[in-house]
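Let's do one together. I've listed all components of the complex below, 433 residues spread over two lines.
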Amino acid sequence: MRPGEIGQLIATDQQATPKTEADLALAEQVLAEVMDPEVPVVSVVDLGIVRKITWRDGHLSVLITPTYSGCPATEVIELSIREALVQAGFVQAEVVQRLDPAWTTDWITQAGREKLKAYGISPPVGSASKRSLTSVAPQVTCPICGSEHTQLVSEFGSTACKALYRCLDCLEPFDYFKCI
Amino acid sequence: MQKYDELTEFLLRMGDSALVQAQRLCEWTGKAPALEEELALMNVGLDLVGQARNWLDYAAERIGDGHDADSLAYRRDERHFRNLLMVEQPNGDFAVTMLKQFFFDAWQYPMLTQLSKAKDERVAAIATKSLKEVTYHLRRSSEWVERLGDGTEESHQRMVKAIDALWRFSYEFVELSTQEQSLSEAHTIGDISSVATKWQAMVNDVFARATLTVPDAAQPFYLASRDGVHSEHLGFLLAEMQYLQRAHPNASW
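Okay, and this is what the predicted structure of the assembly comes out as:
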């Protein structure tokens, strides 16, 4: 069964009132509650994955962009978004993926950065547009004790979007959300 | 061999190269020299699988005939693969693996930089996305080449042996086919005429820091990956990669 069909069934079942263009704000609220499956404290809106929410041809259309080309969470994110929208009554919602413009960590909201830090992941430092092949390593702060005395262990961590660091003061290992 | 139009052939070259390189990286699962290295190898592999899917999706749309990225990956025989010879070579030890990765990254980086300026918007979008990831790949692989080359007597010797084993396949990084030249001149895929010199410059620079000697330019020989004439290793790799879809067509989870 395809996600759209599930939506139809639920809608018939609950006799939901059809949503209209006036409900765009509600859709935004719903999306702000859809969490990233790998980092369940930040929403897809916080991460800048949701690019555009519009009303088109009588239904809701959500434009999303993948973080990394091979991020295995992309499909789960698309499904969770659809599911949340359907449950909120947007039964015909379409979710469209687009690569261009390419996702950048610069799109992570300030609130998203605070949540990452509270979760124990150091948020990206600086602007992605200034990073290049030869640029100097960023000054990463330990999310646990706040020390700047940290060391890169590997630029590749537990997921594609994170690097592995260790704090030289509190000695804890931690994840750093890479700046891309 | 069936030849598609120039752009489709080029998309297959990009997609197949990323795919085969990713498959080789995944062979390290469970046996990398350190946990952090295993994570890094798999991360790079994952990025490349994603990039391969983006290129092959586009190629499949152009080919039509009911193809999608999966059918191109799992249902074509080796004579239909357009990947670089370098990426299909066996992993060998860690030195061979990292040198292969470095050669590939040093090619992808200038290639994607140019492709990101392509007139074809889809090519530009995939390249722009991929380039962000490849920047990380290249930084890591070039650091490893430097560390191993300029490391211990043992690691240096292993890098020398790795160069010996792989260099013969490097001619593909510095030559363009006439089809690619025409795509490049029309700017359909951006001007890629400088990729060869940038690849060579990157290799020269990293090898110098790694105290390794750059061999004389490799000469083309009878293998020609653009025509599907591969080394004997690709068939074995595909046999493993395609097993499930061959044995249980359209299996999914």
